[in-house]
Amino acid sequence: MNAASFNARVDDAQEINIWPMPKPLPTGLLPVKDFDVSMLPEPMIAWVADIANRMQAPAEFVAVPAMVAAGSIIGRKVGIRPQANTDWYEVPNLWGCIIGRPGVMKSPAVQQALKPINRIQAEARREYQSLKTQFDAGELEREMRQDAHKAEVKRRLKGNPMADTSDIGCPTDEEPILRRYIANDTSYQSLGELLIQNTNGLLVHRDELLSLLRSLDREDNCEARGFYLTGWNGTDDYTFDRIIRGTNLYVPSVTIGMVGSTQPGRMRDYLQSAIHGGGGDDGLVQRFGMMVWPDVSPTWSDQDREPDPIARSAAFRAFDRLNALTADEVGAQYDAFDQTHPYLRFDAAGLGMFQEWRISHEARLRSGDLHPAVESHLAKYRKLIPALALIHHLASGKIGPVGDLSVLTALAWGEFLESHAHRIYSAAINSGATGARDILRHIRKGDLTDGFSARTVRNKDWSGLTDGNSVADALDILEEHGWIMSEDVPTTAKGGRPTQIYRINPRGLS
Q1: Could you report the per-residue pLDDT of 80-136, keeping only the tens digit for each?
Q2: Same domain (yes/no): 386, 496
Q3: Smallest Cα–Cα separation from 135: which of 178, 174, 180?
Q4: CATH no. for residue 461?
Q5: How many Å apart are CA 266 and CA 210, to the nearest integer?
Q6: Which residues have a Cβ under 8 Å from the Cβ of 198 and sit 6 or more positions away?
Q7: Which structural domain, as residue segments, surrounds residue 474?
Q8: 506, 493 in Cβ contact below 8 A?
Q9: Burial category of 507 from C-beta neighbours within 10 Å (exposed 0-12, middle 13-18, buried 19 and up)
């Protein structure tokens, strides 16, 4: 060993000795409750479990979009009044989001869960095509009938302008309308026109959900954002009065279900913006009550087999029943002052369970112990819990008042979903710890070298580390735990402020 190499080794040893041993960084994700398939309506249990097993994906990746789709098919046909006497009314249209890393089967799981509603949509399209063919074939006859009608009216009025022509029938064949259940990529104006034709509501499915939410954050899309916010309520009407679309385009009830997926980093970044007063701070994202970020099993086994035909048939029949369901068939009631919103209530046992939950829930919301963003999210459970109970009740093939079993499963859903909400919001609220772990990972990979600056990190454009506050928080945590040390380097410019760089603790590289 030459003298230079020996001296370098001595200098390295001395350098390491002056550094403390770094302390462990704060732990990562909060734990979440395991999903129990018994929370599903009975006809869906074996079907969801079979899909999840064959795909080796978390069961909630299938269960969440399945429940959202079921609620969308019910739509405005039947709602629920969660109290015994008031006119508080909820429609079971829900918003769901699947969160997971790339490659964990999010999109394929959602596609499997939406097969029943896509099957119903395909059948509606076939029926429409048949009716449209018949309608088009009668075009010449309709024109001739209209001409004959005009001629007869003209003949009568020629001799007597006050003649009665009400007995002359006028051809009134209406062009068939395609019943829509699901929409993917549409402007809010086009979605509104679809809802005029499909008053029961629609399910919006976006594979990458954050692309839609970010587009709604733009200043020029504020009307679209308001339209979607109205659609979550599921009970309000809407009128378009725009020259380009015409005036008085009336949507009787904007009822929108929504489901999609995204990646953890993208959701964390979006929530950070919402939490810190960005474009998404009006509660839009908090309406995604069916939002889950499960752990993915570290083990995998090949499941190369056919889908369970019995389980699949039972689930598809349940969706078909929901599609054919009428308010009268399930014993829905009508308000004397509102004949447009048929509803069910809880039975005595179900009402007691719901009241007990709500008393506790409202106390928590008012305790001041929750982060405002989490509080806003959980406040939407006032709709989520009764809506889930109604979906469970009707998808199970039951009629009449919603019973205690359906309420119990809805409350189990609530506990399960709340654990995921805490994980998701915690990742954004405590993003400094997540960012610190990400920076440390990049240091160990060699993406950052000794003497890097905060600007260096920002310019890397890593997820969650693109703005100054996030980077500063992450670097502060790393320094506090001894992984790096800040150092001011004098600038070469006369009178310039020193540049802050970060030295890397060599003890953390081993």
Answers
A1: 999 999 999 999 999 999 999 999 999 999 999 999 999 999 999 999 999 888 888
A2: no
A3: 174
A4: 1.10.10.10
A5: 7
A6: 179, 180, 181
A7: 432-509
A8: no
A9: middle
For residue 197, the tally of other CB atoms under 10 A from its CB is 12
For the domain that residue 331 is a member of, what is the CATH number? Answer: 3.40.50.300
Question: Which tokens go with 152?
Answer: 């007869």
Contact, 228 vs 256, CB < 8 A? Answer: yes
Examine the pLDDT at 9 and tell me if it is beyond 90: no
- Report the alpha-carbon angle 73-193-281, nearest 5: 75
User: 324 with 457, same domain?
Assistant: no
Helix (H) or strand (E) holding 238: strand 238-242
Q: Are residues 336 and 472 in the same domain?
A: no
The structure tokens listed for 350 are: 């179900």
Instruction: Copy the structure tokens of residue 1.
Output: 């060993």
Kindly provide the b/e burial profile for residues 416-435, where b requires at least 16 CB atoms within 10 angstroms of the residue's own CB: bbbbbbbbbbbbbbebbbbb
Its pTM stands at 0.83
- Token pair of 57 as six digits: 């994906």
Q: Measure Cα distances from 430 to 30, 241, 371, 435, 473 in Å.
A: 11, 44, 11, 9, 9
Write out the two tokens for 262: 């995204």
502 — phi, psi (to 5°)?
A: -125, 125
First to last CA, the chain: 23
Instruction: Pick the closest to residue 181 from 198, 168, 160, 166 (CA basis).
Output: 198
Higher pLDDT, 499 or 413: 413
Residues in the chain: 510
DSSP 263-290: -HHHHHHHHHHHHTTSTT-SSTGGG--E
Amino acid residing at 105: M
Shared-domain flag, residues 369 and 504: no
The answer to whether 289 and 27 have CB atoms below 8 angstroms apart is no
* Token code pair at residue 125: 């399209």
Tokens 């009608």 belong to which residue?
Answer: 149
Please check whether residues 383 and 461 belong to one and the same domain.
Answer: no
